[in-house]
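--- STAGE predict ---
source: upstream dedup step, 1 unique chain passed
mode: sequence only
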Amino acid sequence: MIDQAILAVGVFLIAFTFAPVGMGGGLIFVPLLHYVGGWTIDGALIAVSLSLTAVVSYGSGLAHRKKGHVSDAAVKSGLVGAVPAALLGVAIVLSLGSDLDLVFKLLSTIMLIWSLRKTLKKLGAPPTSTTSPETSKPSESPCDEVEHWPLRIGTGIGGMLSSILAIGSGVIYVPVLQQYAHLPTRKAIGSSLHLMMVVVPVAIVTHLIFIEASDWETLREQAWFLLSLPLLTYVGAKLGAVFGMKYISSENILRVFCFLIAIVLVKYLLDVVPQLLALV
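--- STAGE serialize ---
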């Protein structure tokens, strides 16, 4: 019961924290379920984590759309690369078998280091001017401003990592949308969330099709508790998107993000290093 209470509070706080910066929270959901809940890293865990990530993306994504912070042209183009790559990611997970735990943690470690580095760089950058309101820009990015193939390659990488690492891939989508769809930050975040709203459900369904009978049994045994987590996640994401954008500065959100990432990174390294040394 204590572990379940920690998990419940954890998913709420993660959703609240990650929603305003356009991230699904998978980088933290997986270690929370793995280390606190005692779940093995497999298709079932990836599907559950992705379901929470999907709730974050929908709760925050719809709030961003209401405010006009979405480029449909960029989203449609990005999905061309992201959806097929998400299916490829599921195939990679299936092919890894018993090696999934080590490969997952290695790839997650790389992703965490990369994400931490970019976030710290962003925190150290001088603040951008906000004197020109974003509402003065067109609500839709013209199609000829979208560099389609670079955008699709970038979102394809994000879609594949989404299926493998159980993440929303906002850390990939947001900079890719900024660079190749030329979107301002808030619109890139909203568009990133809308990519997740399609890609993540595709990955969830595909993972569930291929999980083993024992994994289904685990899901059934914890059905009521697992059903409560998306509700907590939705509430957290909704509050984070509404109040976070208004009352919490991006700098403070990013500092919390860095702190959480650093904790997970250390934990993964403590697991991975001994396994790698044993292979040498």
